[in-house]
Amino acid sequence: MAFITANWNPLGDAFYRKTELYEMFWSLRDGLRDSLVAAAPYGGPIALLREPLRRSPSTRPQLEIYSASGASITSFPWKSGPVVYLGWSVNDELLCVQEDGTVLIYDLFGSFKRHFSMGQEVVQSQVLEAKVFHSPYGTGVAIVTGSSRFTLATNIEDLKLRRLPEVAGLQGRPSCWAVLTQDRQTKVLVSSGPELYVLDNTSCTAVYPPGLSPQAGSIVHMSVSFSYKYLALFTETGRLWTGLSNLQERLSEVDTKQAATPKQMVWCRRPRSQQPSVVLMWDRLLLVVGSCNDTIQFPLEDQSVLVGELDGVRIIGSSSHELLQEVPLVCQDIFKIASMAPGALLLEAHREYEKSSQKADEYLREIKEQNVLGDAVRQCVEAAAHEYDPDTQKALMRAASFGKCFLTEFSPDQFVTTCRELRVLNAVRESSVGMPLTHTQFKQMTLQVLIDRLVYRQFYPLAIEVCRYLKIPDYQGVSRVLKHWASCKVQQKDLTDEAIARAVCAKVGDSPGVSYSDIAAKAYECGRPELAIKLLDFEARSGEQVPLLLKMKRSQLALSKAVESGDTDLVYTVVTYLKNEMNRGDFFMTLRNQPVALSLYRQFCKLQEPQTLKDLYNQDDDHQELGNFYVTSSYRDKRLEGRLAQLQSAVDEYNKAKNDFAAKATEEEMRLLRFQRKLDDEKGAGLLGLSLQATMEALMSLGLHKQAEQLYRDFRVPDKRYWWLKLKSLAEKEQWEELEKFSKSKKSPIGYLAFVEVCMKNNNRHEAKKYVSKVTPEQKVKAHLAVGDLEGAADAAIERRNEAEMGAVLSRCSASDRLLMDKLNRARVAAAKK
Known about the structure:
5-stranded antiparallel beta sheet; 29 strands
């Protein structure tokens, strides 16, 4: 703690410090010389390609990928063309730009993903230089060709090449150039001798940096800040100009007193920076130049590479990996010598407290008197977040915890959150993981992206521990990690399908948000269909199983799963797919083995494809259903001949099915149709298509009683039905004489109460009374009541001594029927005594 400021270097009003992140694991024989090196931002991986332009087929260059701590991730011989540039995408994919304009994309583990070309004309003119940049649209690639033309692709995921306008007078390689992203528009800034040009989609515009000395000479190097907001220009006379990237304002111009062109030039600034600077690197010198005209020099022992970050610059050497950054203001306030900031006093108070010194109370009193104890706690917490050394973090957080004890109304949220975040950051900073994230970078990156990166690098146990420690919901945390783990597990070729399936099931279990069908799909993509089927057995949702099974051409299994699900829509989906994919015979045979699917398909065919339904019955020799089909079809045929033909086919099928009743019923339907047609032709009765009963009713209403009687005899219509039909017909037509004759023709099978009721229904009391006398004794009371004869009803009830019937008559009596009521009551009493 006493030596925290030992590596601080003043630059204007601010301080800069260089912190060692790692001693590199790698062992590079020739260091970083003659190599293309690309390091991804946010503590990302490092790619190294030695002698990238070597063309000898006997000795190929080696492409190596390391973590930020120098731990080897993968290595493979480069078998493609000469490489001009290496860069990393926002998704940690490695982009290799070749001389012929082809861009090859590899994942972190060296697996080839895809490639694209920067244009056909590039093949002839070759790529001289290239840059990979990040814009609001994603990862982009910019190249300059041998014909001095620039081509841009602002998003490699949605490739649209833009060829920028020609730069007047530019021959060959430009002095220097950079990609600018302003207002969601990507431009190129080009230096050609003393001239500076901005290229956009349509024009090439000459620009002039404001305030640049006329004696500065040609611009030989330029650099854009991490946020694309600031620009630095280095001239041949060693002057460094800094300003806004839109070239509207100058920040400073400093004479570096270095005439040689730097190998690299990178901005070093942090959010709310007090003293932004530019870091320039030569073979043996690292120079930090601030806008205040001050500089800091660091000697370099070996070849190094600078990597611009959001809040500093990483310096990667052959033996070490360091971070150069401006010391945050809160850290300056606490650790500066003789600082009287609240945080500094609280830290000192805690030190004294640990020594059991009374000075702790003096420091605390001083803080309390100024009423800044809350500020002191917050300063210590914030400073701890910016420190890289765990011991310093602990000292600051313990001081904050100590000060918090003397506050009654202080929210612990910031303290707790920072504690958790520091534990996560310290875990990922471990050299075995190799992600040297600062707290500022972590907040910009977000926790979700950090977990994604851990998962992408296959640090699954650590990712799961982070999710559980930070209590991230399963579907966003643990489940997502397990899903990615399982997708990688199915690609392991040294394990059997059974072993992988058991391992995946044991680890994933019923984790929410993990779909076994997604894992199975990955297995199928890797050429392991049997493993995919085993994994699908663990999928609880049939709707997720079926689409993949269909894709795998496992139609029988897909149909079985759909039927087991009980989801008719899913069954229909599979059946429709099979119908389109299979020939008709195989399709029908497949359905025959699945009765539920066959039944559902038949229901569909009844509504949509009746002819297909007929073919199904034919294939199954289902004569009963074929007969039903022909009967149903006959009703859709408007022509009598067609209908009769369909019905005859139905009779034949019913006979084959040995269904005598259905065959006879169908034959009688045919006889009825012929009878109806004959009457239609003779009388114009319009009977065709009516049922037997409706036909008889129509005949009787037309007065064709003989024909109705003929139907009655021919079709053996029950007597009761016939008498009812004729009774209603004669009554409705008010043919009372015919009705009386009909009643006397023979004994009525429906009784005579029906005659009474039908006559009353047709409002003829006179005719109704004629039949009351013929009614049986049991129905006499009802008949008298139907015609409104209360006295007759009372006499009949008394004669039968039926108490219920007497009660029914009484209920119909009114106050004026007093005598009749007395008579009935006396009869009821007499019946009760007996």
